[in-house]
Amino acid sequence: MPTRTATPAIEPGAASALLVQPGTVTTGRASTLPLRREGPAKLTGAAKYTDDLVVPGAWYGLTIRSTEAHARLLAIEPDPDVDWSTVVVATAADIPGENIVSLIKDDQPLLVPVGGEIQHHAEPVALLAAPDRETLRALKGRIRLVTEPLPPVFDPEQSEHPFAHYEIRTGEDAALEAAFASADLVLEGEYRVGHQEQLYIENQAMIAVPGEAGGVVIHGSMQCPYYIHEAMQRALGMNAIQARVIQEETGGGFGGKEEYPSMVALHAAVLALKCRRPVRMIYDRHEDLVATTKRHPAVVRHRTGVRRDGTLVAQDIEVVMDGGAYCTLTPVVLSRGAIHAGGPYRCPNVRIRATATRTNTPPNGAFRGFGAPQTEFAAETQLNRIAEALGLSPAEIRRRNAYRVGDVTPTGQVLNESVAAEEVLRLALETSGFEAARAETLRRAREREGSGTIPSGALRTTPQRIAGGVGLALAWHGAGFTGSGEVHLASVASVELSADGRIRVLTAQTEMGQGTKTIFPLMVAAELGVAVEDVEYAGQDTAEVPNSGPTVASRTAMVVGGLCIQAARRLKTEVEGRNGGRPFAEVHAADAAEHGATRIDQRFEPYPGVGFDDDTYRGDAYPAYGWAAAVASVDVDLDTGEVAVHDVVAVDDVGSVIHQVLCEGQVEGGTLQAVGYATIEEIKLRDGRYLNDRLATYLIPTALDAPRIHTILVEAPYSGSPHGAKGVGELPMDVGAPAVVAAIHDAVGAWITELPATPERILAAMHGTPSSGRAVGPGRAA
Amino acid sequence: MPAEPPIDLPGHLFEAYELLATANAAGTPAVPIAGGTDVMVQITGELREPPLRMLDLSRVEALRGIAIEDGRLVLGARTTYTEIRRSALCREHLPVLVEAAATIGASQIQNRGTIGGNLANASPAGDTLPILLATDATILVGGQRGEREIPAIEFFTGYRETALAPDELILQVGFPLPKGREVRFRKVGTRRAQAISKVVVALAWQEGAGGTWRDVRLALGSVAATPIRARGTEGILEGALPTPEVADRAAETLAGELSPIDDVRSTAEYRRVVAARVVHRLLREAGGW
Amino acid sequence: MSFRFLVNGAPAEVEVPGMRRLLDVLREDLGLTGTKEGCGEGECGACSVILDGQVVDACLVPICQVDGRIVRTVEGLSLAARHRGELDALQESFLEHGAAQCGICTPGMLMAARAYLDAGGPSDEGAVREAIAGNLCRCTGYTKIVEAIQAVIHVD
């Protein structure tokens, strides 16, 4: 049963356009909410995803990939016994422009050139197009790559190639060490997290159609049409008109369709230009798992000084992320991970040192949470271990340290408003009955100990087979792009009253399931005072919509939604102004007939009073933060270490709730991805190659693995955005995994410091494999 | 789509035999397809090479049906897991098979996957296979050369290899139903549905004089190249009572006699320990301590 | 080879290799692209259709085994709606509960749920979860899908 609440302690500020006023508490469904706009098409099978499109004359494309992790490419040798005249083979030599997938660094080629270095397994080397898939498959194995092996690097800590390094510090090292010396307890811990695959159910898919004037039109599954648009201009040597990108119905993204689609689109386009006909580049699941980006693995080391009462006095944190073979978005992922690494807690002395390096493994990239789930898992587990060492409840240590208004973050940002850490914590504790549940598991654990039924040997069972446990975690997530990112983006969103009287919203924000197509018309309709059905949302076509920035970083509702509201306000003012102040809803049809089209292009203006210095890493890292708490309840099978996560209470402060059902959907989906991250989602590597490269081996939770999720939405609006929204997509991803790991500890008494917490790791931890953390330093608390 | 292999569509068993023999003689042995849950995965060619020739069994009605014959529970090779789950005969005479069928895949797989296919595929992780070993099941196979009955324990000859000849089909599985036999099943999988097993255990016994166990069969899956019986551990349990001491010895013996491997799904150590604990647990439950 | 069967109540005849996947016949030969391919190995359930009343993965069914049988796909669900072209009760419930997000698992999910409802499945949460355990969804956490299916059973 979903509920929502508002934080009465916080003023709604400038959130005048709120569709649901803060201060209201509603339960159940708001019957007046519009239904998902493209829902009927999706429910009847009418919605067209990329692979559903029929493109007459299209050939099928395929990528020839490396089978080594590191090697020099000496030659590409098509089998001389094959008649290659009926198909098209493309190599780096066929790329019209620069051989670069344009992103942060220009280090990743579309195709490894002969003489160049293969940097990872499954790296694209050549492309093949054929009129049918049968031919394609038959010829796939007939292109030989001649290579000379080079020594690979797989350990990010052994790599000599940093992609990025950040240091965030509150002061000099001496001050930090003095704070540690004054602490009652100093606890060290090392935490590790592995790869995670986004696992959108629609695989990567692109169709390139040669257009007029040497151009190419891309139809595909994507989050960010303008990323591809930019990449096409560079790699294909095209101008902004020749390159055109159209998003088709997109079956999930989660970050996995942020930057990787550029690669697929460019490959399709290179083939299409060479074939002079449309080319379909549709990955199957195996290729998608083998080749596309994953969440960055990381090692996070904590040294934390606390007082006996649990007050944090010093945090020294080291983060190492594995970037994989190319930079992709790694510096930005690392940056977000570093900024969030201390957790949502005030601490006067902090040093965070974060590095991401290159390894000879497939590149890692964007995935919901973007670095924060990795570091916040470490921060939360560390804090839970401190609470245990001090004999404090996990709730109490959080209450004592959670950020409040006026606190200062490690980057020196003063949290002036919209801080709901205590509120989400309180609601999660109350709703879940956390303390009582914890007392019960403690009582049962004592019973087990007292009855002498703790197994004396690893092969024995105890009378009790299942142990329950409950775990708590708290998290924060910076809203929108990091630092000065939004200023650099300078996004534009438009609202138009067309000459024929239609109201259209034009942005590049894509719908991939999260609800863009439903919430933007909702926001604009509310602002204009018209019915939501009367507002159209234009398709995501670079020839039509402005560049409102990528659909990432939970920025769509907050940042671009804000721009839409501002544009709608200006449109309303303008139209009403020339119609004697009569309401927009009454006059807009006549106004259009008389004055023709009116279009408002709203450009992003920096949030008032927000500033960040990219060089020193000081200042306002984000305009505001979302806050989340989760309580997970688990049953652990003591024989096998199998974990059933049966309930999660998820409390998320999103600033303002625009559409309750869609917003809950984000929390529920993100929570389950976090549960998967915590328990079963794992990629093992051998010689730089993923072993979990099929859906039979890379596992995500089924409906039977999924917990019941009780969502509570909290509204602590941000005054800098017109509607108060702070984003929702990523928050639940940050908080789920540490809550599950804490619950496992509550059940079995062992800390799992490496994700996922597989049954194998749980049994090993229960049977005395030493924990990676240890208590050291002055005055171990009694 | 890639070139699909040619397929023959026999309408009855003897036609199937003939087509199988012809294909075999031509040097392109035909792979039979029933529910297709294993073999269809190969058809796209992305994961494995597709077979050269196929033989469809969906029209061969002789391979269907669940019955009691001569005191045995007999399942036609095409019996699906859904049919096993719904079968009153299975529920009455071999409920452990119903329990196992429910752990396989999810509805889509249970509706299509067959017990004969599970046998022919001969995966070491095949969920029902340890039950066949633990219950002394026999497998009736046939071809133009005639029919023969193969004890389940002799059926699995190596990793994904069976005693079935290329010109033979699996026809039936027969389960003896001795009075008073108890059978237990446990699957430890990768998740709660659509899971491949890390360890499968089937344990069967009968109670003799004074409650001692006799005719003990302990079979396991996913711990070796084929489903296996743990003879050493059976020896510990044969003639014994399910006491804590016996359970400890059985668990230790089992851990000692298994040599599982590390793979993408689990580790050798985990499989060894968990197999032992599952048996310890089953003995604890049987002994009521 | 030639195969004839009923799709969503209408007769279909295709001239294709017997081992061609039902999934490919539906999507490419009959243009019914509502049925999706997510993995090609029977793990994700995106291609679920109803074959003679039972939910199956269309990627695992060769067309030769569909000869003379009855296939229902997502495109056929609305045939049971009060008015042609409208949503049926299950689709309506998915829409109202927010059970479809990105939509790519939705057709398969609907077919698994429809087979369960048609078989008279009970409304208890565990049974509903088991009925859709062969259909992976990455967006919703399944919460709203389970609620949507339960709501239809309660109404009935």
Give the tags.
heterotrimer; A: 782 residues; alpha+beta; 7-stranded mixed β-sheet; 18 helices; 30 strands; 28% helix; globular; disordered C terminus; B: 289 residues; 5-stranded antiparallel β-sheet; 4-stranded antiparallel β-sheet; 14 strands
In short:
The complex is a heterotrimer of chains A (782), B (289) and C (156). Chain A is 28% helix and 23% strand.
Secondary-structure topology with pairs:
The complex is a heterotrimer of chains A (782), B (289) and C (156).
Chain A: E1 3-6, H1 39-44, E2 59-65, E3 71-78, E4 88-90, E5 117-118, E6 124-130, H2 133-140, E7 143-149, E8 162-169, H3 173-182, E9 185-193, E10 205-210, E11 216-220, H4 225-235, E12 243-247, H5 260-275, E13 279-282, H6 285-291, E14 298-306, E15 312-322, H7 330-339, E16 349-357, H8 372-390, H9 394-401, H10 421-432, H11 434-450, E17 466-478, H12 485-489, E18 492-497, E19 503-506, H13 516-528, E20 535-537, H14 556-577, H15 584-595, E21 598-603, E22 612-613, E23 618-619, E24 625-637, E25 643-653, H16 660-679, E26 685-686, E27 689-690, E28 708-715, H17 731-748, E29 754-755, H18 759-766, E30 774-776
Parallel strand pairs in A: 1-28, 2-13, 9-29, 11-12, 15-16, 19-20, 25-28
Antiparallel strand pairs in A: 2-6, 3-5, 3-7, 4-6, 8-16, 9-14, 9-30, 10-11, 10-13, 14-15, 17-24, 18-19, 18-21, 22-23, 24-25, 26-27
Helix pairs in contact in A: 4-5, 7-8, 8-9, 8-17, 13-14, 14-15, 16-17
Chain B: E1 7-8, H1 13-25, E2 30-33, E3 53-56, E4 66-69, E5 72-76, H2 81-86, H3 88-93, H4 95-101, H5 107-112, H6 115-121, H7 129-134, E6 138-143, E7 146-151, H8 152-155, E8 156-158, E9 161-162, E10 169-176, E11 181-189, E12 197-207, E13 213-221, E14 228-229, H9 231-237, H10 244-257, H11 268-287
Chain C: E1 2-7, E2 10-15, H1 22-29, E3 48-51, E4 54-57, E5 70-72, H2 89-97, H3 106-118, H4 125-131, H5 143-155
